[in-house]
Amino acid sequence: MACVERAGGGAVWTELSRWANTTAGRRLAKTLLAAALLGVGLKLWARRRRHQRRQRWSQAGKDVVVLHQFERGTNMPNLSPFALKLETFLRMANIQYVVDADEPQGARGKCPWITINGEELSDSELIMDYLTKHFNNPIPEQLTPAQHGVGRAVQVMLDEHTTLAVGRKRRILEQMGNSIYCFLKVYRSECVFKKLFVSLIKKKLYVRGMSEYSEEEALFFLYRELRALEDVMGDKPFLLADAPSTYDAAVFAQLTQVLLGCAPEVERYVRENHAVLVGYHERMKAKYWPDWQQCRA
């Protein structure tokens, strides 16, 4: 049996060798070689570009944050609530930073991420925690443990659930029909960008358990959480007190998505039913984003 197998294998090898010497075989070999060389060349080129970018970022200066995020949106500074949250936090904390859109996703595939003093960090919450310690609590907060608990619960609700309801509405149910115009024209290709983006979001929503909800169900979650947010805020000028806290960065970022980057009927509903949230959003924008118009694409 072993002899038969070796003989069979030898026959196959002989046929492959004979075919490789034909015109078609030589053409295929050249094509594969060219593809391999191209792949190696592209990899080396990408590595060189990556090295050059990091050299440029290292020249930003000591304790200057290089904020890596997607390009500016046309109606808001960024369509990523997490990027907008982090940039708002940097402004609240008076931390010097520069924006880079050449490499918007870091090693974990997340946006935003930062470079500071040669160190790379990702995930907006981990970044904010690091910077808070590094700069010795740059946002003055006089909150009780109970207030911190409420603030954290609100932040998790917004970052982990509200954002999924917004994503379900604007990216899947609306098929980017409204929010596509928040992107630069170069990204508005109906046949490439839109379908690819929707496909990626569908996968994320499936993993997080939001992919099968109807429009009515998605809006039920969204409106219920906006009501809860307004109930927590009450008549206070900011989320937890008379002065803003770190948690306000998440609130402002998510409200921006709801008001300016979801769907016209959602914006209309919020403006008609949540005057407290609308007033809060305008207060935060005026206080920390006086250059709002200049920060739009």
UniProtKB/TrEMBL annotation:
SUPFAM superfamilies registered for this protein in UniProt: GST C-terminal domain-like, Thioredoxin-like
The Thioredoxin-like fold domain, residue ranges: 81-170
Domain Metaxin glutathione S-transferase: 224-284
A cellular component term, taken from the record's GO annotations: cytoplasm
Any matching Pfam family: GST_N_4
CDD domains referenced in this protein's UniProt entry, alphabetically: GST_C_Metaxin, GST_N_Metaxin_like
Signal sequence annotation: none
Superkingdom as given in the UniProt entry: Eukaryota
InterPro entries: FAX/IsoI-like (IPR026928), Glutathione-S-Trfase_C_sf (IPR036282), Glutathione_S-Trfase (IPR040079), Metaxin_GST (IPR033468), Mito_Protein_Transport_Metaxin (IPR050931), Thioredoxin-like_fold (IPR012336), Thioredoxin-like_sf (IPR036249)
Family: Belongs to the FAX family.
PANTHER family reported in the protein's UniProt record: FAILED AXON CONNECTIONS-RELATED, METAXIN RELATED
Name of the protein: Failed axon connections
Encoding gene per record: Faxc_2
